[in-house]
């Protein structure tokens, strides 16, 4: 097994399969809210590829919407979980960088993916080849300009907006994004961004919100619709293959 696959198994055990992670309820509520938007992008005749299983929230919400749903996942334990819980979903155990589909897709979902990989532009170029002409890539990444990062810099808690936090390292982040950088990476890969939005009004790190109620976290997500994307915790972009 490659070192990268071993690292993905470690992250799966330490985070995704670990029910004692105290801030997971925050992340899961944010993913649920994001799925309300994702559902509007998926049609009944689409073939959809999702990169990574994570906590399985996206798969649970979307798998029965299109005609075909495939997941590529590098952690063996998560692939086994997909096959046990979702027998109608094709689960492929490989690194994203090694995957080659037999048929192109209508939609590729790369949700919290580009911040994890060694070369995000190279992976985006591979995803370009996985899509049908005019197919769409849906991206979600953490935002370096989020309010909580801006406050941390002003308070001297971190030197720059794109400084990675201890939590970033726990979940395997290699970078955070801003909208111009994300758009540049997508255009360099043969995509044209066609829509953008943000999710979650986050003024504090997760560790300082552990006593927030689920209702408050939900309201902080709902407020996202009223604020500019560049102030929010996560950036979302739909890009079309050109």
Automatic annotation (TrEMBL):
Coiled coil: none annotated. One of its GO terms (biological process) is methylation. InterPro entries: SAM-dependent_MTases_sf (IPR029063). GO terms for molecular function: methyltransferase activity. It comes from the Bacteria. The keyword Chloroplast does not apply. It holds the Pfam family Methyltransf_23. Keywords: Methyltransferase, Transferase. PANTHER family: METHYLTRANSFERASE TYPE 11 (PTHR43861:SF6), TRANS-ACONITATE 2-METHYLTRANSFERASE-RELATED (PTHR43861). This is Class I SAM-dependent methyltransferase. It comes from Chitinimonas arctica.
């Amino acid at each position: 097994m490659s070192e990268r696959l071993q690292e993905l198994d470690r992250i799966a055990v330490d985070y995704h399969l670990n029910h004692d992670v105290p801030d997971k309820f925050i992340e899961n509520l944010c993913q649920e809210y994001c799925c309300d938007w994702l559902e509007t992008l998926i049609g009944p005749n689409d073939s959809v590829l999702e990169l990574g299983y994570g906590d399985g929230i996206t798969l649970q919400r979307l798998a029965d919407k299109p005609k075909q749903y495939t997941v590529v996942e590098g952690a063996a334990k998560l692939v086994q979980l997909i096959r046990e819980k979702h027998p109608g979903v094709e689960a492929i155990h490989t690194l994203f960088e090694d995957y080659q589909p037999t048929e192109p897709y209508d939609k590729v979902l790369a949700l919290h993916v580009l911040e994890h990989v060694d070369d995000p532009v190279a992976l985006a170029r591979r995803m370009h080849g996985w899509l049908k002409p005019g197919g769409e890539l849906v991206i979600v990444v953490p935002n370096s300009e989020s309010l909580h990062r801006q406050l941390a810099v002003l308070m001297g808690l971190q030197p720059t907006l794109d400084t990675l936090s201890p939590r970033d390292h726990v979940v395997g982040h290699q970078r955070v994004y801003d909208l111009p950088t994300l758009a540049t990476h997508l255009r360099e890969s043969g995509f044209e961004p066609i829509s953008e939005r943000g999710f979650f009004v986050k003024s504090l790190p997760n560790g300082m919100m552990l006593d927030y109620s689920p209702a408050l976290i939900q309201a902080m997500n709902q407020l996202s619709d009223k604020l500019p994307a560049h102030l929010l915790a996560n950036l979302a972009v739909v890009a079309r293959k050109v």
